[in-house]
Amino acid sequence: MRELGIIEKGALLVEDGRIAQIGPPDEISKGFKKETEMVDAGGRAVLPGFVDAHTHAVFAGNRIDEFEQRLSGSSYQEIAAAGGGIKRTVALTRDASEAELLKQAKKHANWFLSCGTTTVEAKSGYGLSLESELKILRTIKRLGEETPLKCVPTFLGAHAFPKEFTDDHDGYVLEIIESMLPAVAEQNLAEFCDVFCEHGYFGYEQSREVLNRARALGLGLRIHADQLSNNGGASLAAETGAITADHLEKVDDVGIAALLAGRVQPVVLPGSVYALGWNKYPPAKEMIDAGLALVLATDFNPGSSPTPSMPMILSLACTQMQLLPAEAVSAATINAAYSLKRGHEIGSLEPGKAADFTIFDCEDYREIPYYFGLPKVWKTFVNGKVAFDCA
Ligand code: NIG
Ligand code: FE
Has residue 234 got a pLDDT over 90? Predict the structure, then answer.
């Protein structure tokens, strides 16, 4: 993760949206055709587009009022218990039309591109009924089709219990297993299934049932694990064959050993720790030292992490979790790509891969986490085409 394979004064040749060659300019220019267009990066740093492997990018409204309530002393859990939190966004998202949802999602997509992200994983989970979960997943699909941002869809029906099932949690789990998951799989609207495995949300057994059903239907698995408490989420990820376990603020050594044995990639989300005003970040350095292929992501959502900015996440990873800038870049690009089963396609600048890259207004990639809190993206390219330009 510390070896980025930097090419000083490099160049790359793009053909049909893919990287044809990468190396010193003299060699690359041999491949020029008369229609080849030149983009002079002017000595700026060129990196693979960020791959944000954990977002809740499609939702209606925001939760600015809860932000203020937290600053006045209420906790995230207290607000949720009083009917706010995820439930608030569910009510707003259910009320929104598909067109309204798409309009807001396109605004979010532009934010991602302006921060240098070219692929996001996007979860449903603010519908919690068959109809509204499908509405969100269709919106994610259209977002990928109608904007340059590449979107990988995840079904997160098991995000919270909807008000219809307040007194019948097992009934909702059954609804997910018997009705929602088969419909999502049949309509091919998700590649992954995620579960919020947490006290007060989906228990260990309920999470296992949902994940096993999803796997049987051909979906890959991801889990919100050990975020607010350590309830064995990491071990469940290993047991069910999940590709990632996400959050992990409360994971212990037993959990880390389980991830390693199960070849599960940890996805750490320091934006949610920061935005909730907490100070216990997940043990990311220990995970790297243990040999895990760590992933960094934004967790972009209206409650716990309202940031679409991977540069901000890289800064938090370095200053709060002691990652080196190179480790943070690897976690936000190639490792993230593998966690979305796209390691062959995106996440690094190599011949044959999609020409998804970002030119930063920096001479050195280490400036990205170092100068924090200011926009540094000069241009973002997806499939060789300009998707964001700061000018
Ligand atoms: O990843 N942990 C569960 N879900 C989100 C928060 C969702 C919300 O508050 O709206 C998360 O932090
Ligand atoms: Fe999340």
Answer: yes
Q: How many A from CA of 78 to the centre of ligand 1?
A: 14
Mutate to test the pocket of ligand 1, among 79, 222, 267, 301 (most ligand atoms within 8 A of CB): 301
Q: Tell how far the Cα of 54 is from the centroid of ligand 2, in angstroms.
A: 6
Q: What is the C-alpha separation between 46 and 188, in angstroms, rounded?
A: 35
| Interval 43-63: pLDDT, tens | 999 999 999 999 999 999 999
pTM value surpassing 0.90: yes
Q: How far is the CA of 333 from the centre of ligand 1 (A)?
A: 23
Ligand 1 site-directed mutation target among 69, 77, 78, 86, most atoms within 8 Å of CB: 86
- Bridging pattern class, strands 18-23 and 11-15: antiparallel
Q: Is 119 helix (H, G, I), strand (E, B) or coil?
A: strand
pLDDT tens for 1-35 read 999 999 999 999 999 999 999 999 999 988 889 99
Q: How far apart are CA 262 and CA 98, in angstroms?
A: 39
CA distance 377 to 371: 12
- Structure tokens of 264? 């599960």
For residue 272, which atom of ligand 1 is closest to its CA?
12
**For the chain, what percentages of helix, strand and coil (3-state, to nearest 5) are there?**
40, 20, 40
Across 325-329, average pLDDT: 98
d(CA 264, CA 243): 5
* Among 125, 70, 39, CA closest to 300: 125
Tell me the CA–centroid distance for residue 90 and ligand 1, in Å.
12
Q: What is the mean pLDDT of the chain?
A: 97
> Strand, helix or coil at 38?
coil
> Pocket around ligand 1: residues whose beta carbon is below 6 Å from it?
85-86, 89, 196, 224, 227, 272, 299, 301-305
Distance from residue 211's CA to the centre of ligand 2 (Å): 16
What is the pLDDT at residue 31? Answer: 84
